Amino acid sequence: MTLLVTAEAVVLALLVLLVAGLLRSHAEILRRLEAIDAAPQRAAQSGDAPGILDPDLPAPGGRATVAHDIAGQTLAGGALQIAPSTPGRPTLLAFLTSGCTVCGGFWKTFSSERRPQLPDGGRLVVVTKGPEQESPTRLGKLAAGDVPVLMSTAAWTDYAVPGAPYFVFVDGRGQVAGEGSAREWSQVASLLADAVADADAGHRDRGRRVEEELAAAGLRAGDPSLWSQP
């Protein structure tokens, strides 16, 4: 009789241990599932999740409306600031590195005596990463003497540059008119042509809207009331 009671007690103890183990496993599974469900939300809040973008941050390669001014370092170690956001002369920003193979073709193109001309007398500015990521000596062997080279990692962030080579064309109004990657200069030239054509079309559309609004108000181009002094 005693042996039977002892056996039952052992079996009962084993069942208790088995149930306790199952409950712990179930609780651990639930905890991990909750962690998995919460991970995307935490990642989105921190901005670290791939494919999830903070709406307050620029998307990679995303087009900005107004250009950012750029401050950085020259290859000689001096300070340099470029202000493409200021209306005036168009600017082509060429984001290049000293290491990428495709960039090598553009370094050679920019160093050539027959360097391509930019629309509306625009200027070319090469933007590299800062000296903490690039070698001024190596860049000096690649760069042409008359093409400004600005070392600024912050500029790559401001313009959301996804990789090199990458080009951003800022028109004479200080607006980003076009941007994109390219493997050869003909693709950059196409980007510039499209940007200029789109800008011209936009000007024509605005002019047509102004004329329509004036006509709706009973005014025509050259109406004396448009030029009267207050």
How would you write the strand order of the largest sheet?
5-4-3-6-7
Summarize model confidence as the mean pLDDT: 75
H-E order: HEEEHEHEHEEH
Sheet having the most strands:
5 strands, mixed
Report how far apart the termini are.
Answer: 117 Å
DSSP helical segment count: 5
Gyration radius from CA atoms, angstroms: 31 Å
Describe this structure in words.
The protein has 230 residues and is an alpha/beta fold. It has two domains: 57 residues; 143 residues, Glutaredoxin, CATH 3.40.30. It is built from five helices and seven strands, in the order αβββαβαβαββα. Strands 5-4-3-6-7 form a five-stranded mixed beta sheet. Strands 1-2 form a two-stranded antiparallel sheet. The protein starts with a helix and ends in a 14-residue tail after the last helix. The C terminus is likely disordered.
